[in-house]
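#struct-queue
[09:14] JT: dropping the first one here, sequence first, then the structure tokens:
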Amino acid sequence: MTREVRTVVFDTGLQLEAYQFEGIMQKFPNHFHDYYVIGFIEQGKRHLVCNNEEYMLNSGDMIVFNPHDPHACEQVDGRTLDYRCINIQPEVMREYAREITGQDYLPRFRAPVLYQNELVSSLHELHLMILEEQSDFGKEELLLLLLEQLLRDNADAEPPLSSQDVTIEIKRLCEYIESHYMDSITLNELAELTGMSKYHLIRRFTRQKGISPYRYLETIRINHAKRLLEQGQLPIEVAAQTGFSDQSHFTNFFKKLIGLTPKQYRRIFNHEVDSKRLRDSVLR
């Protein structure tokens, strides 16, 4: 029996989430987040696909995802994964970038994987401080120094979307999905918007965005669901407001992408959990 532990803390001072997964085997399907993810592998070996590029991750490797970077990963060595990360909302990252550089911009990190990077030790120390709920300014100082080096060595100001520009038709589809995610969207509707066949729409969308139209829709729904759960709304209410057919579908997909159930995620931001902490242990 493997002991699976998922620990999540929201640090109100730093305004970021800290995740720790221990002993998990979960496969994460292709998806994206609307925030930055900075993390590292403690133990385990993972196959990662990010922005249509493949990577092999090992202990000590660092990952850096920009908002909307499509990515998927799975275990490849049959052993469990230990992983830590911090999640930073764009508006918070903008403030940190302004504090560090004096410029008002959203950074764009160039490489999603930094192999055996020296910053892993600093990130590990910062992560421990957050989980231990240290209240002095040591953790803020460490975060600023960590971000300063990442911004200096691995980031640019917001560049063009990609080496392969997104066409007007695909932009229109994204805007439509983002505006109608609560509705029951059909592939016929999307095809009519562009004049493309359904097959060519799927192929072109996936090639340009790195994620299929349906996965894009469900990821948009999950991102909105997180905000509603953070506000204290119940999972059954959130499922209805974000376009999922039923609560079971919502719960299953939420856990696939976030690593927690909606109920567990809601508890992080709910007064039921002191210090905005969730620790959930499962025997498998």
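[09:21] JT: and here's the second one, same format:
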Amino acid sequence: MLTYIVRRLIQTVPVIFGVILVVFLIMQMVPGDPAVLIAGDGASEETVQAIRHDLGLDRPLPLQYIQYVLDVFRGDLGTSYRSDHPVMDEIMLRLPTTIQLALASIVITIVLGMIAGIVSATRQHSAADRLIMLVALLGISLPSFWLGMMLISFFSVKYHLLPVTGWGSLEHVILPAITLGASGAAIVARMTRSSMLDVIHQDYIRTARAKGLKNRLIVYKHALKNALIPVITVIGLQFGTLLGGTVLVESVFAINGLGRLIVDAIRMRDLPVVQGGVLVASVIFVFVNLGVDLLYRYFNKRIEMD
């Protein structure tokens, strides 16, 4: 197990290199000059060139990329062009909010998705099954920003039950978490249903029923545990999707998280902040995938850590 974990951690190194390279190249194609944005529209060409030199933007792109990679592996994500603060400080200020939102959303994804999937599988072809699958299809199809605005319109504007924007209390978490977790819950529900249907038609389940075991015991002790492997995969992937989805949701609900920080940085061409934010989100996603692989081993001892 330890050897497998070490090997997986080593494999993350080229992934990090790739993420840095892709984001770096994309930001170079975004229109606008960071030096001009920092200096202002009325600045002279000499001032702009001086800022470019101070930021290292006058050097060839390969040298800029190599220098940034070296700084990253020293733990330095650079300095924000906009605020002149260390990028790591700005990220760590916003990251806890995004993590809280993502965790609340993944709880909704898991709880609602698995309950709906189990009910749908155990009542196959019933009215409940059709209704759950219809709602799941809607959940997958609806854009998160549209769902967020509809929730705001209904629960905040019309009935004044929950706050529109802000962060800091349970009431502030509910609407963004539902908005972010709805599509994930729909996907988990469909996967849970499919996986449960495959398992409950296996011979050992029929044997358990023939022995007279209660249906609830068969479903939750025998069938569910063996049906969880593909569901865990989907949940792990959904966590990465949630981290990316916070960009839109945090903008809709005016939440000062990592996603909104990245959006503001892209608008200002604050390259170090964009690269640092995407890099941190990517590293989190890599470790989530590692955790998912370890959960495979927990739920199925026959799985080898190759």
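[09:30] RK: nice, looked through the second one.
[09:31] RK: The radius of gyration is 24 Å.
[09:31] JT: good to know. The CA atoms of residues 118 and 125 lie 13 Å apart.
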